[in-house]
Amino acid sequence: MRGRWCVLLLAWATAPVVWGQEPSSPAREATHSSAPSGDADVPAVVVTKQAEFVADPGVAATSASSSPAAEAPAADDVPVARTVVTASRTQERLGDTPVATEVITRAEIVASGSRDAAELLAAHPGVEVVQNFTGASLRVQGLGPEYVLVLVDGERVGGRVAGSVDLSRLSLEDVEQVEIVKGPSSVLYGSDAVGGVVNFITRKARRPLGAELRVSYGGLDRLDLDGTGEARGESWGLRLTGGLQRRASYDLDTADVGTTGSTLDGFDLSASGDLKTRGAMTLEGSAGFSRRTQRGVDLGVAGAVFDRASRDNNLTGRLAPSWRLGSGATLRVEGSYAHFQRTYLRDQRRASALDTVEKTKEQQGRLGVQLDARVGERHAFVVGTEALGEWLVADRLGGSGKGDRGRFSVYAQDSWTLWTGPRLVVVPGARVDVDTQFGTAVTPRLAAKLDPLSWLTLRGSHGWGYRAPGFQELLLDFENPTVGYTVRGNPDLKPERSRSLSFSTEVRPSDASLVWASAYQHSLRDMIGTSLEQDGELQRFTYVNVSRARVRGGELGVRQRLPWRLSLEVTYSLTDGWDEELDRSLEGQPRHRFTSQATWRHREWGLETWARASLVGKRPFYHDTDGDGLANPYEADPYVTLDARVAWRVREQLQLFVLGTNLADAGNATDLPIPPRTFQAGVAVRL
Questions:
Q1: What is the CA radius of gyration of the chain?
Q2: Which residues share a beta bridge with 63?
Q3: 106-144 pLDDT, tens per residue?
Q4: Distance between alpha carbon 259 and the CA centroid of its chain, in Å?
Q5: Predicted TM-score (pTM) of this structure
Q6: Strand order of the sheet with strand 196-202?
Q7: Partners of 240 in the β-ladder
Q8: Which residues pair with 514 in a beta bridge?
């Protein structure tokens, strides 16, 4: 009897549903579920790592790429390998990339019900979304938002406020997939990519003529409306997208008139297209505009009440021609422009002495040329150069209120297949940046991927990185009399330098299972911190190169495909961040974090469900609670978040859904200012 139960248990654990074709590489890559990417409402399994799973019989994946051109949609019964572009700045199969890349597919975005990038990444393993007065920023492997580069189709997202990109500005109605590369990426992307890169790849037209509409309404009077239209010809494609977002303010401390979260009114419009000529050229282009207005109420130290409002306008444009040169070589030229403008208003009630109106205008332009070439069967080269210009005009900057700088870069990387059995790929690379303010910086990296067995993959990398000081750290001249502090920039700051080491292992016991473990360490020097001087009741902060820090940690996760079309993922993340200059833990960084995610689908009933949860451990903070200029430590309590979505496909073109966010109702006004528990219901129509 015991033997029979063992046989049944083994059969249950390894029973395949439908799996992808076996690639030629020894590292098996099962195909991820999703539907053809035009079907935005087909549910997904959990977030993809290096192995991808088929979610359901008869539903195939479609590869997604940013350039040079997206592949045609796959037939419904022919799975294809998903491609990624972020790790090497060129197209490659997800299972073949030597640098570990995590992918969130379009189907997973829809299944989660996430309305912006902050909600989508809130419980992703190894990354952390932090809410503050500037919006929602991102930490990767314990490093703050100033060390994380956020891209859209490979282009830097402009409009950093206090060193971070507000992820809630990035809507998802036009995102095909999200690619996450953790660890140093300065070798390909330069400054700000010390902790990692998050790249949002936009969708492309795939159907001859089609449209989608999604509308939802719920708690906090939140309204989300987005629509898309597309057309595809034999050699061209065009896609138009628009969205509208509204939300009321929320308050986690009702003892005063202040608000924790602001109201939100926003919209975004975008257009993208691609054209294939009769020759070897392909042309891609996109343009977009978004506006976000937020309003809230703040309290001053003396009991004054301030109504505040901010309006952000963001304009982007991109043009990218490419040429196939033969023998597997491609030449790409990319040009982009971004214009970000913020107007910030603070109005004191029943007084005007402290009223302020501040304007910020940031422009960013980039021109890049890259050659992708294969030499024989063992070498895949990426060689490129780019010029980046940044211009900032802001009332908060000292002197003329202006800042500008340029950067010229040259980079090269080779994916060198040393052995084919077992397969060993070594990836040496280096980048040279010449900055008009900070001179020359060299950032080499060496990565490797080994597939000793068909079910085992090993990866490792060692690389250098750097981060140039931002305009705020260099030129800021800001005084906040309502709170009693001033902040001064320092034009003599030096760039931060870093060195990082990482290892990862992936084990595939069966087609239905994936287990992974990783470890990393970042060592930083010349970190930019602040020095504090107490002048009576006024605190004076100045940016200085004083800190050294090291951040180390790891992840352990398992993903299992269960019977009854159920998928489950559980991950544990350990982060040990230490400020060596101040001899204390890094502020706000939890040491322990558990995340889990589950999906279930019943095709015959048209039902699909998705749920995720996270348990976040204690977080250290350092506040001057006594007014003596000394930081007093305290630990914020652990908390739990839970989100869920249930959808019912009434007919092929119509789906109803209900979304619950922060069901555990975590959050407080002191150290966790996240929105309270809300529910939202909606309908999605596909034509």
A1: 25
A2: none
A3: 989 999 989 899 999 988 888 889 887 667 889 998 888
A4: 27
A5: 0.87
A6: 102-105, 175-182, 196-202, 148-152, 155-156
A7: 229, 271
A8: 559
Tokens found for residue 112: 């989660």
For residue 573 the two structure tokens come to: 């993340």
Q: Which amino acid is at 596?
A: S
What is the residue-wise DSSP string for 584-623?
EEPTT--SEEEEEEEEEEETTTTEEEEEEEEEE--EEEEE
Residue with tokens 């003396």: 302
Instruction: Choose between 426 and 130: higher pLDDT.
Output: 426
What is the reported pLDDT for 531?
78
Q: Which two tokens stand for residue 125?
A: 């393993």
Which CATH architecture group holds 18-199? Beta Complex (2.170)
Q: Tell me whether domains 18-199 and 233-686 share a fold.
A: no
Q: How far apart are CA 343 and CA 577, in angstroms?
A: 35
CB of 449 closer than 8 Å to CB of 422: no
**Amino acid identity for residue 391 in this structure:** W
Domain boundaries, the chain: 18-199, 233-686
Helix (H) or strand (E) holding 225, with range, is strand 222-232
Q: What is the distance between the alpha carbons of residues 136 and 113, in angstroms, rounded to a whole number?
A: 18
CA dihedral 42, 47, 50, 56 (to 10 degrees): -30
> Are the C-beta atoms of residues 682 and 223 closer than 8 Å to each other?
no
Within 10 A of 159 (CB to CB), how many other CB atoms are there? 20
Q: Are 91 and 85 in contact (CB under 8 A)?
A: yes
Distance CA 589, CA 596 (A): 19
Query: What secondary structure letter does DSSP report for 220?
Result: G
- Between the CA of residue 145 and those of 163, 194, 303, 531, what are the distances in Å? 7, 10, 32, 20
204-243 residue pLDDT tens: 999 999 999 999 999 999 999 999 999 999 999 999 999 9
Q: Are 272 and 204 in contact (CB under 8 A)?
A: yes
Q: 3-state class of 21 per DSSP?
A: coil
Among the CATH numbers 3.40.225.10, 3.40.50.740, 3.90.1590.10, 2.40.170.20, which is that of 233-686?
Answer: 2.40.170.20
What token pair was written down for 344? 């910030």
What are the residue ranges of helices labelled H in 249-406? none
- Distance between CA atoms of residues 677 and 640, nearest Å: 12
d(CA 319, CA 271): 12
